[in-house]
Design a protein that fits this description.
single chain, about 290 residues, alpha/beta, TIM Barrel, eight-stranded parallel sheet, two-stranded antiparallel ribbon, 9 helices, 12 strands
Length: about 290
Amino acid sequence: MSGGKNLTASLPTLGVGLGYRSELRAGIFAHRDQIDFLEIITDNYLSTPEAIIALEELCASFPVIPHGVDLSIGSCMPLEPSYLRGIKRISDLTKSPYYSEHLCLTRVPGKDIGHLAPLWFTEELLEHLISRVLTLQDALEKPLILENVTYMLEIPHSSLDQATFFQEIVSATGCGVLLDVTNAFINAANHHFDAEHFLRQMPLSHLVQVHLAGGYWRGDWLVDGHSELVSPEIFSLFQTLASLCPIKNVIFEHDAHFPSMDDLLHQMAYARRILQSSQRLRPEGIGFKEA
């Protein structure tokens, strides 16, 4: 898939869904009529036939979007062919209209970092990333959607800011943005910048999906724990984003201290009301398998 054209413009609206975790399985299937789609962690389904069977069961009941965590797109090392084949297999199995990953690195030569590490926003790395995104979109045969991550430190001597870096990548490749509103809020709180200004600087014409999650304070540091319900302040930032641009797809993420299903569904319903009040959620847009 060549760059230039916005590859995300015709992607479907799925609605408001959940990041699938096994702890939520019973509640998800009991309330499938209130969950528009699921997002799965690709890397959980790469190793065993049993995992594939479990994924097929999800796909039989929901639209499913695969979300990667270990591509390490920002690394200088060549992309691992076996890993690419694995994520292509999962992407094809789900029949997803796009594939998402984090704009970060998780490994360097000889070392697995074990964390979504921030990038050095330079012209040299930008050129490298553009080439990687084009390669991935050709391999996957669908648009790639890149997510902003949280960071404990800002890499010094970057020549570009994060939003400009995103702008340049999507302009050159046609890829999309997965805007994690919680990550933007957390970074703004920890590094003392204006989260709303950051949203306005992002390439919102390429926005495909949003993540919402809850964090917690550790002293004076806000942690992206995916362990709490979404706070009113994060919902307020989400509402600001909804006023700025169409939002096709929203996923709530939870990885620890799982709340009741009623609480999750209540938050999902609130997100829908925000989208509807902003007249951004297209009424025809649930599902994509028939396309």
